[in-house]
Amino acid sequence: MTDLAPSSPSAPNDAQGESPPPRRGFSDVLHELANSDRERVSVGSILQAFGDRAFGALLLVFALPNALPMPPGTSAVLGAPIVFIAFQLMIGRPVLWLPRFITERSMRREDFATLAAKIDPWVRKLERLLKPRAQLLTTPFADRLTGAACFALSIVLALPIPLGNMPPAIAITAFALGMIESDGVAIGAGWLGAIASFIILAGFWAVVTTGFQYFAGPLLRLFGA
């Protein structure tokens, strides 16, 4: 069992009043991992590299692929870890706990570097739009609400709804980016995406229910007569 990524902020550099170093962007952390001298990059090393942003980083890692067209069944596989992570965020756990069999999963550094190079342009474009703002949506209490939303969205994500995995995945991605960059505007966009996802789910359920009543109702009456 492994506890990772303390959520408390770093202490000031020293008593002389020096300002803390600027916060590294998501792309900077990926670049450092891709160019490190380690042979393999593990899930644990990724989480430790992101420090107090580990919750957002891991949510992004699992949600972003689902926001893109993927083979059927992908959402069920990648959505399950989000349930686990979002639940911990929702209950206010100060550090992200992951079983050792997950934290020890790894890939070759060369493969990680290739993956990082592919997503780097997109991540840097997003980072230019993101910045610390609307801090009311980045407080510890707000993080719990974000965790509750991601928890509910992750359950929707795992449902076998045709093309229904993309809206909740996009919402979780927005939440994750907002948490990583302390951007309340991105978190607000995540809430809008969450509302849209639940509206889509309600519409899908209404269609299924209406279809069942239309086709199954006459059959039930026929066999019940």
From TrEMBL:
Keywords: Membrane, Transmembrane, Transmembrane helix
A Pfam family that the UniProt record links to this protein: ExoD
Chain segments annotated as transmembrane: 76-99
Disordered: region residues: 1-27
Top-level taxon of the source organism: Bacteria
Protein name (database record): Exopolysaccharide biosynthesis protein
Extent of Polar residues compositional bias: 1-13
Keyword Transmembrane found: yes
InterPro entries assigned: ExoD
